[in-house]
Every structure is written in C-alpha cells, then in structure tokens.
Write a structure and sequence with these properties.
The complex is a heterodimer of chains A (112) and B (289). With 112 residues, chain A is of the alpha/beta class. Helices cover 28% and strands 24% of the residues of chain A. Chain A contains three helices and six strands. The chains are: A alpha/beta (112), B alpha/beta (289).
Chain lengths: 112, 289
C-alpha cells in the first residue's frame, strides 16, 4: 500500500497539515518497499482557485492508495479522489506523521 | 458618464446611494441604473416599474468529448483555475471553478472540449419613471459572479446610448466582482460609515481603486453614528475628496425599511444628494474632483 500524508514537514516527526488542498507537503510512504518520498506542495499558495482538485491530481499521479489527513478534502477534490478510488482517513490534523500512521494502523482514524 | 458605487464593507449604503442618486439625476437627465451586485441585487426593492425585457443569461463551460480526446494533457496545463484535471484516462471538468475563458477549448488540438451553454442567471430591464433600470440575479448554486456582471455590462452597452448617465451599483468587497463592476467606470463613489469596520474596509477599497488607477471620492453615510475624524484625516492625507455626508437618522431607516426613497423626503438628505449630483456632473464635464 502507498499511504499519503498531508504534512508541514518532510519526515516521520513532522506535524500533519490539517488542510488538504493547501497542505505544505505531501509525504508518501510505500509500505512494501519501506521507502519515504515527499512532494513540496507549497507553490499551491499562489493559486487563488482550485487548490483541492490540483492537489488531488498530484496525489493521483503519486499513485497513493490511502490518504491520511486532517479536515478532509472539499467537494471538488473529493470528486477527483473518488474517481481515483483512493481511500481517505481524516482527523489526524493534530498529530505528527508517526502518530498518524499508528492511528491508521490501529484503525482509530475516521474514514472520510 | 459611468459612475460605480462601491464600498469595501457591505451594508454602508451602496444601494441607498445608487437608487436615490439615480432618482435625483433622472429629474433632469437620462439615467440607466444597473444593479451589478448579482449575488443579492436589491436596488429593485426601491424601484417599482414595468418590466420591459427579461433575459436568461448563460455562460459556457467545456464538456469532455471522450471519443476524440488523445489525453495529451494540454487542457489542464492551459487552465489557470484548475477547472480541468486529467486523471489517468479521464478528463474531469469542474464547472464551478471554470471562468469561461475558452483557453482549454480553443487550444485543444482535437477539439475535444466543446463549450456548452449553461444557465447562470436572469437579467431584467425595467422602466421606472425616467430611470432605465437593469438588474441581474445569479442563480442559487452558481459560484461565479464575474461572467454575469460582464454580460450585464455588455447588455447595457448594447441597449443604451452614451448620452445617458450610467450608475453601477457594485457588489461589496474588493475582489473580482467589484473589479469587474468598476473597471469600466469613469468615476467611483466609495460609500463608507464612521465605524472601525467602515474605515478599515474603506482603506482596502481605496487601495483597490489606486491599483486600478481610478478617479474616486468618498461619501460618508450614517454620519454621526461614530467619530469620523479618522476617515477625514485619512482622506485629507491621501487627497481624497469627501463628496458629502448623509446623516444617521431614524427616519431614514424607517423609509428605507419600507422600500422608499429618501432623497425627496428629508431636506438635509436632499441637500446631501444634490452635492453628490453636482460633484458627479462636474466630473462628467471634465472638472476636477
């Protein structure tokens, strides 16, 4: 499984970013290969409109199976992710990435 | 002569000023009043007249033609609003994000994004005594006010002569709808009120007008409800004319809430509106503000 986190930083100890479309970083963890990658999403700040679908599309291109985030995507982004068949878990906005992953493993995160 | 009435803060009296100024001007001039606050037009609450014309207003949104699309991805690269997203083998269009700019459609190498018309609202043209009154109303659920504002201005351009004084009742705020409503105007009247919010948003509105390089002046409404010293100092320091002040009076509120005009019922109010009228006419003749 490839698991994507919306984060404020670039490693396991980084805080989660509760925002979806305007998240600072997209961190992707490949469980099988046990590798970590990140994508700097901060250029989204320049966009007045459509941050949600744009970020959703980046996530699709990254090939994520699961998204772990805080508040959850809005309507447009949800439509993209639903088409892409990505599972979304919310409520991890105040955790760091490690805690968010554990919460996901323990199935304590809410499914969007 | 095109005059836009804007404010920054909502509820300072744009509509009050628009309808009363239009009515006063119409005593001696031909006037077209256009309500461009298409998300909640309310000039019509004060103007009762015969419907001359009603038009359904449309915008155009691309629709994906799957059979001819080669999935080259040009469309999503060309869309500045992320209203088109390529998702693997699929193209998704988000109509609420689309600004109807046609870029995706016209730059598509295989013409796979034809523009399809979609209803966005309604325009009404009424004749109210001597005033030609045009208002547009955005449909519920539509998110883009700008296309409707632009088309409403186009309607006015097409249907009325340039000898008429045009008054645009602009939307509140300082974002795209206000820009669209005021960018073609020769002069902008910024309505404010002597409250901290009124002053704060006036400054934002002034910055917007400076950015657009517009000529503008200020009307202080609800004069007496708070201390107007800050506004006066600010206008003085920035060489912004204060055209007139409209007093804060219970009687005005009473008339307003009954959907009545105020310029012809109270002497001091009429005097204020005459000042505004004279100012506007002087500018129309090329005089200094």
């Amino acid at each position: 499984m490839k698991i994507l986190f919306t984060t404020k930083g670039m490693d396991w100890n980084a805080m989660m970013d509760p925002r979806f479309g305007r998240a600072d970083f997209l961190l992707i963890y490949d469980e099988e290969k046990d590798v970590f990658k990140y994508l700097d999403n901060r250029d989204i700040e320049k966009e007045a409109h459509g941050a949600g679908p744009k970020t959703a599309q980046k996530i699709f291109d990254l090939g994520a199976d699961v998204i772990i985030t805080g508040n959850g995507p809005g309507g447009n982004a949800s439509a993209v992710l639903e088409k892409a068949g990505v599972e979304i878990f919310v409520g991890a906005g105040n955790m760091n990435v490690k805690e968010a992953y554990q919460a996901y493993e323990n199935k304590t995160l809410e499914k969007f | 002569m095109k005059i836009a009435i804007a404010s920054g803060k909502g509820g300072t009296g744009k509509t009050t000023l628009s309808v009363n100024l239009a009515a006063l001007l119409s005593e001696n001039h031909k006037v077209v009043l256009t309500d461009l606050d298409v998300e909640e037009p309310n000039s019509g609450l004060f103007l009762h007249g015969n419907l001359v014309q009603k038009e359904i207003m449309y915008k155009h949104i691309p629709e994906w033609e799957e059979s001819t699309c080669t999935l080259c991805g040009e469309c999503q690269k060309n869309c500045n609003f992320h209203a088109i997203i390529q998702l693997g083998q699929q193209i998704m269009v988000f109509p609420e994000l689309c600004h109807s700019c046609y870029a995706c459609s016209e730059l598509c190498p295989t013409f796979s994004l034809p523009m399809i018309r979609q209803r966005m609202g309604e325009l009404k043209y009424r004749k109210v005594k001597e005033i030609d009154f045009v208002e547009s109303h955005l449909d519920i659920g539509q998110e883009q006010a700008v296309p409707l504002i632009a088309q409403t201005l186009g309607y006015v351009e097409e249907h009325f002569g340039h000898d008429e004084i045009r008054i645009y009742d602009a939307p509140p705020g300082t974002s795209c709808p206000v820009i669209e409503a005021s960018k073609g105007a020769d002069y902008i009247i910024l309505v404010t009120e002597p409250t901290p919010f009124g002053f704060h948003d006036l400054k934002l509105a002034v910055e917007t007008m400076l950015e657009m390089q517009k000529k503008f002046g200020v009307v202080i409404n609800r004069h007496g409800i708070g201390d107007d010293k800050e506004i006066r100092d600010y206008c003085k320091n920035n060489k912004i004319p204060i055209i007139a002040t409209i007093p804060n009076k219970r009687e005005i509120a009473r008339l307003y809430s009954g959907g009545e005009l105020i310029y012809d019922k109270l002497e001091d109010v009429r005097a204020a509106f005459e000042k505004i009228r004279d100012h506007v006419l002087r500018i129309g003749k090329g005089g200094r503000s």
